[in-house]
## 1
Amino acid sequence: MPDRECLICSMEEVDPASRVFLDELWAAEVAPGFEVPGWFFLRARRHAEKLTGLDESETATFGRHAHDLVSAVEQVTGAPAVYLLSFGETFRHFHALVAARGGEVPPELRGYGLIQLLAAGRDLPAAQALAGDVRLVYEEIVRGREHAAVR
């Protein structure tokens, strides 16, 4: 059952325009407070604290979702780097930030320094527009894999 005090749990109610995908175990969306175009939270839908709190099904499917989401973000943004970060301190509910890093980002703001771009980079309409594009590519990636599996 979602914890009403948990930001990540509250994302069950996110605006559909912010969502890339939602399945039984996982979701990916533009997160409240992190509305930077090309940034998404990949989150366990169940309130599981830390990576080690995931159950067997969540653990078995995390990598595929992370791979497909990063691939879709790369294709849509053309970013030279797409980061997958998970700290688990401020929000203990397991999630990973998938963040596109544009070529214009100076070297001192690359890697963990990218988080410094949050305050100036927030733009909900642009983030939601990009989420729609990422959603379409994500769905193509999933369909392509399912089609290949049928062959």
## 2
Amino acid sequence: MSFFNKLSKMVSRADKKADQLADQARDLAADAAKRAGDFAEDASREVNKFAADAKREGAKVVKSATKTAKAVSKDVKSKATAAAKTAEARANKAGKTIATEAKIVGKTVKSSATKVAAGVKEALTGAPDATWSVAQLRAAAKTRGIAGYSTMSKPQLLKALK
């Protein structure tokens, strides 16, 4: 067998191995993107549960303060009622603040997962296409420093990223 035939077979085997490795890399990246999305959803659910628990605990505190105020004499009752109202307002404000922060954390986690998924997808495919979500396209546009990406539509983003 001639040198060129041997070389051709070696190149063919190397090409097949490269294809196999690329397939494995795509599968791993897809799994990583799915896991990142699952993690973001789990984190969002946990944050929302925490916010709901905090709100329920705040309501329990308000009820307890109200019962205590009713048990006190008339002079103390007016002061306790004022304190209970203040506590209720603070508990409601704290519950709203926690819920708002939980939403922000959920969005941040989801945004980070979307950016990671876009980066993995772009690393594998090389260029964005119509299968990408608008969030993934915007994340890719942001990493490339494209101005005005946040107000662009999907077709505009695809054109800017090509």
